[in-house]
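Following up on my earlier message about zinc ion. Here are the inputs again, as you asked, copied directly from the submission form:
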Amino acid sequence: MPTVGELTAPYANFMLGPRSGAGVCESCFNFTSGYARCYACTRNQTWLDAVLPISYSVAHEQLHHALAGYKRLTGEVARRLRIELAAVLWRFLAEHEACLAHAAAAARFELVTTVPSGDRARDQRHPLRFVAGLVGPVGQRGERLLRRSSTGAGGRSFDAAKFEPLRALANESVLLIDDTWTTGASAQSAAAALKAAGAGPVAAVVIGRHVNREWHENDRRLHALSRPFAWETCALCARDG
Ligand SMILES: [Zn+2]
Ligand SMILES: [Zn+2]
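Thanks, got it. Here's what our run produced:
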């Protein structure tokens, strides 16, 4: 059985850790053309107390393929990708879950859950739930807290009714796990549902923060990020020194 270190080693060759700074969105680490927050973060309602992307994910590049493939593919290839992505989450959360809790003003996360699939029929067997179930640091805190509602609108925009809670919460802090972040509408909708159910601080860790290499100066900015990926530093602890 390969170790977490062995499973994640190849990912260090292509993962690109976000870093805060001028022209980086202060909430989701998207590149902006000089603004403190990106367009989507100014437009969406903000329910998440903090967001921590592990890496940028660029269309048609390796992490993008892994994040699409673990859901779309089947058989041995899909199984391998799921184990690798679980190992990436495992290794990252073991080092940086505390950084995210600190940013969300929580002592620790009492509950850990995933953002449900946008597709109600697929929600029960969402591969992300399988992946999250393998992540050691999540341990006994993992619980399915949300499901796709039948009333909420589809699509990619923020909708507080998109997800519905499976039980009431009593001010517990919640760590939301998602695979990708494009506009953040899905994770913000999930956070809104958790808060409506009574959650305390809610923060999201996402594996890949999608960026478009062709937009503005993104290609140059992606090239300027340090390689290989540094497991010992995340976007939050790098910012806070
Ligand atoms: Zn943003
Ligand atoms: Zn950190």
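One observation from looking it over: The beta strands are 50-58, 111-114, 146-148, 163-165, 174-181, 202-211. Hope that helps, and feel free to reply on this thread.
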